[in-house]
Amino acid sequence: LRDVYKRQSRAAGEAAREAAGEVRAAADRAADDRVAGAAGEAEGLLAAARQDAEEVRAAAASAMAATRDRTASVLAHQEQEHAERLKATEAELAAEEAASEARFAALTERAEALLAEAGRDLAATQEAARHGQEDAEARAAEVLAEARVREERVVRETERILREHEEGREEVQAHMAHVRSSLAALTGRVASED
Q1: How far apart are CA 152 and CA 137, in angstroms?
Q2: C-alpha distance from residue 129 to each of 116, 122, 134 (Å)
Q3: Which residues 6+ apart lie within 8 Å of 193 measured at CB?
Q4: Are 191 and 184 in contact (CB under 8 A)?
Q5: What is the dihedral of CA 66, 70, 71, 75, to 10 degrees?
Q6: Distance between alpha carbon 106 and the CA centroid of its chain, in Å?
Q7: What is the mean pLDDT of the chain?
Q8: What is the pLDDT of residues 26-42, one digit of tens each?
Q9: Rounded-to-integer distance, Cα 26 and Cα 20, Å
Q10: What is the pLDDT of residues 129-165, one digit of tens each?
Q11: Distance CA 41, CA 35 (A)
Q12: DSSP assignments along the chain, one per residue
């Protein structure tokens, strides 16, 4: 009986081994099928992903090219605007500079005219002062000459008056001497002489 069990056990083990081998082989085949299916699906997904990536890359490149075109257009427009503004600013500055130079020239001309006029006025004033000095000196000489003439006249008049007084005094003294002498003769006395 033991042998029977052993044989049955061996047979069952062999059968189990065979079944396990079949199951393993089936599992291996299923796994291989699954791996092959997954690999095929992965290749499909990878191809789709590559296709999507290519489309995205193409769209990005197109968008980048469009952006570059727009940027170049905007930059060209800005450069044109800047050039026009620069030209207008330069023209405005040139006009202001010309106006400033004209104002400077006019002010310089006016200042030179005023300076020339002041020079003429100064020369006229100096000439008038010189003439005034000459006139004053001439008038002073005239006044001095008149004063000398008057002084000489006063001196002569004074001398004449003094001479007349002296002559009158001498006449009075002679008359007094005569009166004294007459009184003395009349009274018989000698009058004291003053």
Answers
A1: 22
A2: 20, 10, 8
A3: 180
A4: yes
A5: 150
A6: 21
A7: 84
A8: 888 888 888 888 888 88
A9: 9
A10: 788 788 878 888 888 888 889 888 899 889 888 888 8
A11: 9
A12: -HHHHHHHHHHHHHHHHHHHHHHHHHHHHHHHHHHHHHHHHHHHHHHHHHHHHHHHHHHHHHHHHHHHHHHHHHHHHHHHHHHHHHHHHHHHHHHHHHHHHHHHHHHHHHHHHHHHHHHHHHHHHHHHHHHHHHHHHHHHHHHHHHHHHHHHHHHHHHHHHHHHHHHHHHHHHHHHHHHHHHHHHHHSSPPPP-
Which single residue is written with the structure tokens 């769209």?
59
> Residue 29 is encoded by which pair of tokens?
């085949």
